[in-house]
Write a structure and sequence with these properties.
Layout (H helix, E strand, L loop, with lengths): L2 E8 L2 E8 L11 E2 L12 E6 L5 H5 L4 H10 L2 E3 L9 E6 L1 H18 L7 E6 L3 H17 L1 H4 L2 E3 L6 E7 L4 H12 L2 H7 L5 E10 L9 E8 L7 H15 L13 E6 L2 E3 L5 E3 L8 H7 L3 E7 L1 E10 L5 E8 L2
Antiparallel strand pairs: 1-2, 3-4, 4-6, 5-6, 7-9, 7-16, 8-12, 10-11, 10-15, 11-12, 13-14, 16-17
Helix pairs in contact: 2-3
C-alpha cells in the first residue's frame, strides 16, 4: 500500500505519522452522531463525535502519538483529539461509515482496557457532621500529638470536618456520569426511609482498630461505627448494602477490597494514594501504633445522627473543610 507522511494534531502537540493515500479528512459507551443526524453511507465522508472522557484521551493518543497513528493507519479514518485545555469529553472521527465504525471500535477497546487506570473521583459518603463528635476527635488527635509525639509525627490526621463512612468508591469522569449517579442516589430516597422505618439512624463512634493485622505495622487507623440502638444493629449495614447493591448493579463499582464499615482518623504519612484510591505502601509507610492502642484503644467519641448520604468529590473541600457534595438524600 502506498503511504505518505502526514502531520496531525492532538491538542497543541503535533505528530508526524505515516498514513495510506486516500485517507479521509475529518466521535463512551461509544455513542456517535453524524453530520445532519443521518447515517453516512460507505461512499460518504462524514464526521462523528464519540464520547470519550478527557482523562482517557492520552490512552487513545499513546506514547508519542503511536496508538493514534496505528488507529488511523488501520482504519483509514481521520481522528481529531481536542486540546486538553478545551476540556472536551469527546473525540471526533472522520471517514466513511465503515472507517468510522472501525475507528470507534478500536477506541472503545482502548477505553475499556484503560478505564481502571483512572483514579477514583468520588465516593458514596455518610458524613459525620455532628459538631460535638468532630470536636472530640480533634481533641483526641491533639492529645496524641502531645502524649505520643514519635507516633504522631508518622501519622496524617483526618480533618474532623471530613469524618465519614465510605459506602463505595466511584469513578465519575464526565459531568453526565456525575449527574446520573446523583440522580440514582436521589431515586433511593423513599426506599432508604422505608428501610430505616422513618426513624433516625444514630450511631456511636469508638474503639480504635487498624486495617492491618499487626499494630506494629499499621497504615490506616480507624474507629468503629455501631448503632446506638442495639435492637436495630443491622440497619447501618443494611443501608450501606442496599445502596451499594443498586450502584453495583449499574456497573459503578470495581473495587476488589471487601466492604467494612469504619471511620478513618489516621493514616501513615508515608502511605500514598494510588491510581485506584488504594494505599500504595512503600517500605517506610507504616507506623508502630502499639503504644497508641495501649493508651487509647477503648476510647469513645460519643453518639451522633447520620443525616444524609451524599456523592462526595475526592480532594475537593468546602470552606469548613468538609468534602464537596455533588448531591445528597436526607435520612429521617
Amino acid at each position: 500500500m502506498n503511504q505518505t507522511a502526514k502531520a496531525f494534531e492532538a491538542g497543541k502537540r503535533g505528530y508526524r505519522v505515516r498514513i495510506p493515500f486516500g485517507s479521509s479528512h475529518g466521535t463512551l459507551n461509544v455513542s456517535s452522531t453524524g453530520a445532519g443526524g443521518a447515517a453516512a453511507s460507505s461512499a460518504t465522508i462524514s464526521r462523528h463525535k464519540i464520547v470519550v472522557p478527557q482523562v482517557l484521551h492520552k490512552f487513545v493518543i499513546g506514547s508519542r502519538g503511536g496508538t493514534l497513528s496505528s488507529i488511523q493507519y488501520e482504519t483509514n479514518a481521520r481522528i481529531i483529539v481536542p486540546s486538553k485545555h478545551d476540556k472536551c469529553d469527546f473525540i471526533e472521527v472522520e471517514g466513511s461509515s465503515k472507517e468510522v465504525l472501525m475507528a470507534e471500535q478500536r477506541i472503545q477497546h482502548i477505553v475499556n482496557a484503560n478505564i481502571q487506570k483512572v483514579p477514583f473521583t468520588h465516593f458514596i459518603s455518610l458524613p459525620i457532621s455532628d459538631v460535638g463528635v468532630q470536636r472530640r476527635v480533634g481533641d483526641f488527635q491533639k492529645a496524641v500529638q502531645q502524649e505520643l509525639p514519635t507516633v504522631a509525627e508518622r501519622l496524617s490526621m483526618t480533618n474532623p470536618a471530613q469524618l465519614h463512612i465510605t459506602a463505595g468508591m466511584l469513578r465519575l469522569i464526565t459531568p453526565e456520569q456525575v449527574a446520573k449517579a446523583v440522580e440514582m442516589l436521589k431515586s433511593l430516597q423513599a426506599e432508604v426511609c422505608g428501610l430505616l422505618d422513618d426513624k433516625p439512624l444514630v450511631i456511636k463512634l469508638g474503639q480504635l482498630a487498624a486495617m492491618e493485622a499487626s499494630l506494629s505495622q499499621a497504615r490506616t487507623i480507624y474507629v468503629h461505627a455501631r448503632e446506638l440502638d442495639e435492637s436495630s444493629s443491622e440497619k447501618l449495614l443494611q443501608l450501606c448494602a442496599m445502596v451499594r447493591g443498586v450502584f453495583d448493579k449499574e456497573g459503578y463499582f470495581d473495587e476488589k477490597r471487601p466492604f467494612k464499615i469504619h471511620v478513618t482518623i489516621f493514616r501513615s504519612k508515608w502511605t500514598k494514594q494510588g491510581l485506584l484510591g488504594e494505599c500504595k505502601r512503600g517500605s517506610g509507610g507504616v507506623v508502630d501504633a502499639t503504644s497508641l492502642f495501649k493508651s487509647h484503644g477503648e476510647l469513645s467519641f460519643g453518639a451522633c445522627r447520620i443525616d444524609q448520604i451524599q456523592i462526595a468529590k475526592r480532594f475537593w473541600f468546602t470552606e469548613s473543610g468538609a468534602y464537596v457534595s455533588e448531591g445528597s438524600i436526607a435520612l429521617p
